[in-house]
Amino acid sequence: MIDRRLFLAAGAVAAASFTGGCTTLFPAPSRFVSDRISVTVAGSGPDVVLIPGLATSRNVWAGTVAAVPGYRYHLVQVAGFAGAPPLANAQPGPLLESVAAEIERYIVEQGLVRPAVVGHSLGGLLALMTAAAVPSVSKTMVVDMVPFGAMLFKGPDVTAEQAVAIGADARERYFGANRVAATERLYATMIRTDAARPAFVAQALASDADVSGRLFEEVAATDLRPRLKSIRGPVTVLYVSAPNIPVGDQQTDALYRAAYRDLPGARLKRIEGSFHFIMLDQPAAFAQELRAFLR
């Protein structure tokens, strides 16, 4: 049987180090129990759900929570990421849909009132899934992600077969025998701020390789574009011109417009001077965008 106490203990450790004592964190109400995610709560005010990306802990949002007070933040962490036990996520079967279902269940069971949902990377995909499934979600922010992950590798015309191959190749490259060196190279292209990078490399390497690899495969192969029409509230997408993708700003802009064509009202904005982790590389710009989004 899965010992859920291990995941709760890991969540408590992450909470203790979340903001160096600047913000008080509380666990989600005890009646919510999950063996796929944990949730801690910080602050008070309107509800905002924050979902981190692949192999990343909830503390990626520490600076954001401190910079944008006045909200009740619900900070999600996926089981198996950043040293947390994988629990049910270690079992065979689809992961992406299962994790999304738990976030959706949390919002409904905890009675969040018209929550905003914000997600980075994998978390952005989960945010879109949640917004499409839960009518009470009032607005959605996606940080550097498209609704079909394989588009970032092959462009808007990528096929389903190519997407599966992309995911399998990436899983072997980043979560296989050469994982340490591959992770260090990858994060050099994803976090521009040298001082911030080592902590998140460490989180990635502390994450369960099987859980991370399987989710990477599913992100590449999952096409959420048909679901976008089910999203009711406004959507903001922040993105960057990635240094590891050999295209210019105009091509990147065109890619994101194509990716979100089925959400014609979506606000798309490219953030300058940042790699993939916008909240780390451009914290002031990100906080400004988040404030405007949440108003």
Automatic annotation (TrEMBL):
The keyword Cytoplasm does not apply. It comes from the Bacteria. It comes from Sphingomonas sinipercae. One of its GO terms (molecular function) is hydrolase activity. InterPro entries: AB_hydrolase_1, AB_hydrolase_fold, Carboxylesterase_BioH. PANTHER family: HYDROLASE ALPHA/BETA FOLD FAMILY, PEROXISOMAL MEMBRANE PROTEIN LPX1. Transmembrane segments: none annotated. Keywords: Hydrolase. The keyword Manganese does not apply. Pfam families: Abhydrolase_6. Residues 48-288 form the AB hydrolase-1 domain. This is Alpha/beta hydrolase.
